[in-house]
Amino acid sequence: MRSVYFSEILHTALQLAGLDRGLTTPERFSMVRDFASMRLRSVWEMNEWTDLKVLTSCPVVLVGERRTVPIAASLGQVITIWDKDPLAYSATQRDFELIDGVINLRSRREENVWVETRKESPRLFGDAWNTNQSYRKGAQVYYDSGSESGSLIPVNGYPVQGDFYEYTGENPSGTGSVPTVASWQRVVIPKLFANAVIHGVHADYRRSTNELEAAQSAEADYAKAVDAALDQTLRQQGSTRPINFRGY
Question: How many other CB atoms are found less than 10 A from the CB of residue 208?
Fold first, then answer.
Protein backbone atom coordinates (compact mmCIF):
# COMPACT_ATOMS: atom_id res chain seq x y z
CA MET A 1 0.00 0.00 0.00
CA ARG A 2 1.34 3.43 -0.92
CA SER A 3 1.39 5.70 2.10
CA VAL A 4 1.71 9.41 2.87
CA TYR A 5 3.57 11.19 5.65
CA PHE A 6 1.17 12.82 8.09
CA SER A 7 3.36 15.94 7.93
CA GLU A 8 2.13 16.46 4.35
CA ILE A 9 -1.48 16.40 5.54
CA LEU A 10 -0.65 18.63 8.51
CA HIS A 11 1.20 21.35 6.62
CA THR A 12 -1.03 21.41 3.54
CA ALA A 13 -4.21 21.65 5.63
CA LEU A 14 -2.71 24.51 7.66
CA GLN A 15 -1.74 26.38 4.50
CA LEU A 16 -5.26 25.96 3.06
CA ALA A 17 -6.65 27.36 6.29
CA GLY A 18 -4.34 30.39 6.02
CA LEU A 19 -2.23 29.28 9.01
CA ASP A 20 1.54 29.45 8.58
CA ARG A 21 3.00 25.95 8.80
CA GLY A 22 6.19 27.51 10.16
CA LEU A 23 4.21 28.62 13.21
CA THR A 24 2.59 25.28 14.01
CA THR A 25 1.73 25.31 17.71
CA PRO A 26 0.84 22.19 19.73
CA GLU A 27 -2.76 23.49 19.78
CA ARG A 28 -2.93 23.80 16.00
CA PHE A 29 -1.29 20.40 15.63
CA SER A 30 -3.86 18.81 17.95
CA MET A 31 -6.70 20.42 15.98
CA VAL A 32 -5.47 19.08 12.63
CA ARG A 33 -4.70 15.66 14.15
CA ASP A 34 -8.20 15.25 15.61
CA PHE A 35 -9.95 16.48 12.46
CA ALA A 36 -7.74 14.24 10.31
CA SER A 37 -8.48 11.19 12.47
CA MET A 38 -12.21 11.74 12.07
CA ARG A 39 -12.02 12.35 8.31
CA LEU A 40 -9.71 9.38 7.77
CA ARG A 41 -12.23 7.06 9.40
CA SER A 42 -15.06 8.58 7.35
CA VAL A 43 -13.43 8.03 3.96
CA TRP A 44 -11.98 4.68 5.11
CA GLU A 45 -15.45 3.23 5.78
CA MET A 46 -17.41 4.70 2.88
CA ASN A 47 -16.25 2.22 0.26
CA GLU A 48 -14.80 -1.27 -0.10
CA TRP A 49 -11.31 -0.03 -0.92
CA THR A 50 -9.14 -2.75 -2.44
CA ASP A 51 -6.04 -1.83 -0.43
CA LEU A 52 -7.91 -2.29 2.84
CA LYS A 53 -9.34 -5.75 2.14
CA VAL A 54 -8.14 -8.92 3.83
CA LEU A 55 -9.21 -12.43 2.73
CA THR A 56 -8.92 -15.19 5.29
CA SER A 57 -9.75 -18.88 5.04
CA CYS A 58 -11.77 -19.92 8.11
CA PRO A 59 -13.34 -23.20 9.25
CA VAL A 60 -17.08 -23.46 9.85
CA VAL A 61 -17.80 -24.62 13.40
CA LEU A 62 -21.06 -26.20 14.56
CA VAL A 63 -22.29 -24.63 17.82
CA GLY A 64 -25.53 -26.31 18.81
CA GLU A 65 -27.61 -26.03 15.63
CA ARG A 66 -25.78 -22.95 14.41
CA ARG A 67 -23.00 -22.95 11.83
CA THR A 68 -20.57 -20.27 12.96
CA VAL A 69 -17.25 -18.88 11.74
CA PRO A 70 -14.73 -17.87 14.41
CA ILE A 71 -12.49 -14.96 13.38
CA ALA A 72 -9.94 -12.83 15.18
CA ALA A 73 -11.07 -9.33 16.11
CA SER A 74 -7.83 -8.01 14.64
CA LEU A 75 -9.11 -8.82 11.13
CA GLY A 76 -11.49 -5.85 11.28
CA GLN A 77 -15.00 -5.35 9.92
CA VAL A 78 -16.66 -8.30 8.17
CA ILE A 79 -17.77 -7.41 4.64
CA THR A 80 -18.58 -10.65 2.80
CA ILE A 81 -18.45 -14.42 3.19
CA TRP A 82 -17.40 -16.47 0.14
CA ASP A 83 -17.73 -20.20 -0.42
CA LYS A 84 -14.21 -20.32 -1.88
CA ASP A 85 -11.27 -18.04 -2.59
CA PRO A 86 -12.76 -15.28 -4.83
CA LEU A 87 -9.33 -14.37 -6.19
CA ALA A 88 -8.75 -17.88 -7.48
CA TYR A 89 -12.22 -19.13 -8.40
CA SER A 90 -15.68 -18.01 -9.49
CA ALA A 91 -16.91 -17.77 -5.92
CA THR A 92 -20.38 -17.30 -4.49
CA GLN A 93 -21.35 -15.09 -1.57
CA ARG A 94 -22.98 -16.76 1.39
CA ASP A 95 -25.76 -15.25 3.50
CA PHE A 96 -24.74 -14.56 7.08
CA GLU A 97 -25.60 -12.58 10.16
CA LEU A 98 -23.10 -10.97 12.49
CA ILE A 99 -24.46 -11.16 16.04
CA ASP A 100 -22.38 -10.21 19.09
CA GLY A 101 -19.20 -10.50 17.04
CA VAL A 102 -20.02 -14.04 15.84
CA ILE A 103 -20.62 -14.90 12.18
CA ASN A 104 -23.68 -17.12 11.76
CA LEU A 105 -24.08 -18.82 8.37
CA ARG A 106 -27.40 -19.81 6.83
CA SER A 107 -25.77 -22.12 4.31
CA ARG A 108 -25.15 -25.72 5.39
CA ARG A 109 -22.89 -26.68 2.53
CA GLU A 110 -19.34 -25.63 3.34
CA GLU A 111 -16.94 -26.84 5.99
CA ASN A 112 -14.64 -23.93 5.17
CA VAL A 113 -15.33 -20.41 3.90
CA TRP A 114 -13.36 -17.30 2.94
CA VAL A 115 -14.06 -14.23 5.04
CA GLU A 116 -13.53 -10.81 3.46
CA THR A 117 -12.83 -8.12 6.03
CA ARG A 118 -11.77 -4.49 6.03
CA LYS A 119 -8.88 -3.37 8.22
CA GLU A 120 -9.77 -0.99 11.02
CA SER A 121 -9.08 2.69 10.48
CA PRO A 122 -6.14 3.94 12.55
CA ARG A 123 -6.86 6.42 15.34
CA LEU A 124 -4.57 9.44 15.53
CA PHE A 125 -4.07 10.74 19.05
CA GLY A 126 -0.35 11.16 19.76
CA ASP A 127 1.53 14.33 20.67
CA ALA A 128 5.03 15.31 19.56
CA TRP A 129 7.77 12.86 20.58
CA ASN A 130 9.61 13.97 23.70
CA THR A 131 13.11 12.59 24.22
CA ASN A 132 12.71 13.02 27.98
CA GLN A 133 9.49 10.99 28.15
CA SER A 134 9.22 7.26 28.77
CA TYR A 135 6.35 5.57 26.92
CA ARG A 136 4.21 2.55 27.73
CA LYS A 137 2.59 0.01 25.42
CA GLY A 138 -0.14 1.59 23.29
CA ALA A 139 1.25 5.11 23.56
CA GLN A 140 1.41 7.08 20.32
CA VAL A 141 3.76 9.89 19.30
CA TYR A 142 4.34 12.16 16.31
CA TYR A 143 7.95 11.87 15.12
CA ASP A 144 9.80 13.37 12.14
CA SER A 145 12.24 10.70 10.99
CA GLY A 146 13.77 13.17 8.54
CA SER A 147 15.07 15.51 11.23
CA GLU A 148 15.05 12.77 13.92
CA SER A 149 12.97 14.95 16.21
CA GLY A 150 9.45 15.66 17.37
CA SER A 151 9.43 18.98 15.52
CA LEU A 152 6.01 20.11 14.28
CA ILE A 153 7.54 22.46 11.70
CA PRO A 154 9.91 21.72 8.80
CA VAL A 155 13.56 21.73 9.87
CA ASN A 156 15.90 23.47 7.42
CA GLY A 157 18.26 21.10 5.65
CA TYR A 158 16.28 17.93 6.45
CA PRO A 159 13.49 16.07 4.64
CA VAL A 160 10.07 16.41 6.29
CA GLN A 161 8.90 12.89 7.19
CA GLY A 162 6.57 13.32 10.14
CA ASP A 163 4.37 10.37 11.08
CA PHE A 164 2.63 8.78 14.04
CA TYR A 165 4.22 5.80 15.79
CA GLU A 166 2.77 3.48 18.43
CA TYR A 167 4.90 1.86 21.11
CA THR A 168 4.50 -1.92 21.04
CA GLY A 169 7.03 -2.92 23.71
CA GLU A 170 5.86 -4.77 26.81
CA ASN A 171 8.04 -2.73 29.15
CA PRO A 172 8.27 1.08 29.43
CA SER A 173 10.44 2.47 26.63
CA GLY A 174 12.73 4.52 28.83
CA THR A 175 13.71 8.07 27.91
CA GLY A 176 15.17 8.75 24.49
CA SER A 177 13.60 5.70 22.83
CA VAL A 178 13.57 6.58 19.12
CA PRO A 179 10.23 5.68 17.41
CA THR A 180 11.93 4.14 14.35
CA VAL A 181 13.34 1.14 16.25
CA ALA A 182 11.64 -2.27 16.30
CA SER A 183 9.58 -1.64 19.44
CA TRP A 184 7.63 1.11 17.64
CA GLN A 185 5.15 0.65 14.79
CA ARG A 186 4.41 3.32 12.21
CA VAL A 187 0.74 4.28 11.76
CA VAL A 188 0.21 3.94 8.00
CA ILE A 189 -2.07 6.43 6.23
CA PRO A 190 -2.97 5.41 2.64
CA LYS A 191 -1.78 7.94 0.06
CA LEU A 192 -5.08 7.35 -1.75
CA PHE A 193 -6.90 9.24 1.02
CA ALA A 194 -4.46 12.14 1.47
CA ASN A 195 -6.28 14.81 -0.55
CA ALA A 196 -9.66 13.89 0.90
CA VAL A 197 -8.33 14.12 4.47
CA ILE A 198 -6.63 17.47 3.74
CA HIS A 199 -9.80 19.05 2.34
CA GLY A 200 -11.88 17.48 5.09
CA VAL A 201 -9.64 19.02 7.75
CA HIS A 202 -9.91 22.38 5.98
CA ALA A 203 -13.71 22.13 5.97
CA ASP A 204 -13.82 21.22 9.66
CA TYR A 205 -11.54 24.12 10.54
CA ARG A 206 -13.70 26.61 8.65
CA ARG A 207 -16.78 25.21 10.36
CA SER A 208 -15.12 25.52 13.77
CA THR A 209 -14.51 29.23 13.13
CA ASN A 210 -18.09 29.69 11.91
CA GLU A 211 -17.00 30.44 8.31
CA LEU A 212 -19.90 28.49 6.88
CA GLU A 213 -19.57 29.51 3.22
CA ALA A 214 -15.87 28.67 3.21
CA ALA A 215 -16.68 25.38 4.97
CA GLN A 216 -19.24 24.51 2.30
CA SER A 217 -16.69 25.17 -0.46
CA ALA A 218 -14.07 23.07 1.31
CA GLU A 219 -16.63 20.29 1.79
CA ALA A 220 -17.19 20.28 -1.98
CA ASP A 221 -13.42 19.90 -2.46
CA TYR A 222 -13.52 16.97 -0.02
CA ALA A 223 -16.27 15.28 -2.06
CA LYS A 224 -14.27 15.78 -5.27
CA ALA A 225 -11.19 14.26 -3.65
CA VAL A 226 -13.20 11.21 -2.56
CA ASP A 227 -14.58 10.84 -6.10
CA ALA A 228 -11.03 11.06 -7.48
CA ALA A 229 -9.93 8.28 -5.11
CA LEU A 230 -12.86 6.14 -6.25
CA ASP A 231 -11.97 6.82 -9.89
CA GLN A 232 -8.39 5.79 -9.24
CA THR A 233 -9.52 2.53 -7.63
CA LEU A 234 -12.36 1.56 -9.98
CA ARG A 235 -11.29 2.96 -13.36
CA GLN A 236 -7.54 3.48 -13.37
CA GLN A 237 -6.63 0.50 -11.21
CA GLY A 238 -9.48 -1.55 -12.66
CA SER A 239 -10.54 -3.03 -9.34
CA THR A 240 -13.95 -4.70 -9.59
CA ARG A 241 -15.97 -6.84 -7.25
CA PRO A 242 -16.78 -10.39 -8.40
CA ILE A 243 -20.31 -10.79 -9.70
CA ASN A 244 -22.43 -12.66 -7.19
CA PHE A 245 -24.21 -15.71 -8.65
CA ARG A 246 -26.53 -17.41 -6.18
CA GLY A 247 -27.63 -20.98 -6.69
CA TYR A 248 -31.05 -22.36 -5.75
Answer: 12
pLDDT digits (tens, 9 = 90+) for 70-100: 888 788 889 999 999 998 988 999 999 988 8
Residue 245 placed within a domain: no
| H-helix segments, the chain | 6-16, 26-44, 194-208, 212-231
pLDDT at 242 over 60: no
What is the gyration radius of the CA atoms in the chain, in angstroms? 22
Answer yes or no: do 146 and 212 share one domain: yes
Is 78 among the domain residues? yes
φ and ψ of 195, to 5 deg: -65, -40
Same domain, 74 and 179: no
At position 88, the amino acid (one-letter code) is A
- Give the range of the structural domain holding residue 16, as residue numbers without chain letter: 6-47+122-235
d(CA 203, CA 87): 39
Verify that 227 and 152 share a domain, yes or no.
Answer: yes
Cβ-based neighbours of 104, under 8 Å, separated by 6 or more: 66, 67, 68, 96, 97, 98
Q: Which residues contact 41 (CB under 8 A, 6 or more apart)?
A: 121, 123
Of 42, 53, 16, nearest in space to 193 by CA: 42
Give, for 105, the enclosing helix (H) or strand (E). strand 102-105
Question: What whole-number distance in Å separates Cα of residue 208 and Cα of residue 92?
Answer: 47
Measured from the Cβ of residue 209, the count of other Cβ atoms closer than 10 Å reads: 10
Can you state the percent helix, strand and coil of the chain, rounding each to 5? 35, 20, 45
